[in-house]
Specification:
By secondary structure, this protein is an all-alpha fold. It is 58% helix and 0% strand.
Length: 206
């Protein structure tokens, strides 16, 4: 079953890419933090102005929270995220980081940065194999029977790490995100055209 799913993902998304717009590691981390509970498209719409006005950690650390709020308001939970990204910028500046380190322990100290954010960042910025479980990955895995119904996000990540070769973790993560975003959607999934429908518990119930 798993091989059929992976082959289908390769067929649909042979060269998957992160859909967040960024030019460097600083912009990437900020964009990932902003992407929580919203769409990449919406994040890209606000980071265009945010990074133009505050292109480095120094500028963002000195920005007023109210102005950050004004810019990122469309992404939702913007008040918390405004504080998060301002504090992240201050931490980077305080530690004199020219480049954000590939250090999970350090990244965990940053506000608004959890396991999923770290996994995405390390995978995208440093090409370190990781699987991040967002809402799309979580949904697809349950529907296709890759994970059990009662598995939580961490358990889902562990299952995927066992079932997929490490060298493919980052690619499959992106493929699952894109599959869930555009094909196996939360509402009105495109079941009729799906080649792994025989594995889909959601379709069988429907």
């Amino acid at each position: 079953m798993m091989n059929n799913i992976l082959n289908y993902l390769d067929e649909m998304f042979p060269y998957p890419k992160c859909e967040l717009n960024y030019n460097n590691d600083f912009e990437l981390l900020i964009a990932i933090v902003l992407s929580a509970q919203t769409t990449d498209k919406r994040v890209n719409s606000v980071t265009k102005e945010l990074f133009k006005k505050y292109p480095t950690a120094k500028e963002l650390s000195n920005a007023s929270i109210s102005d950050i709020e004004r810019i990122i308001m469309p992404v939702g939970t913007y008040k918390k995220k405004s504080v998060y990204i301002n504090e992240i910028a201050k931490s980077l500046l305080f530690n004199n980081f020219v480049k954000i380190p590939a250090d999970r322990n350090y990244l965990e100290t940053l506000p608004g940065v959890g396991r999923k954010t770290i996994n995405v960042f390390l995978s995208e910025a440093y090409n370190i194999p990781n699987i991040a479980v967002d809402t799309h990955v979580f949904r697809v895995c349950k529907r296709l029977g890759i994970t059990n119904e009662n598995d939580d996000v961490l358990a889902t990540e562990m299952v995927l790490m066992r079932k997929i070769k490490k060298v493919h973790w980052s690619k499959v993560h992106l493929q699952l995100v894109l599959f869930g975003r555009y094909h196996c959607k939360a509402i009105k999934p495109l079941c009729e055209n799906c080649k792994v429908i025989k594995s889909c518990l959601y379709y069988k119930k429907k």
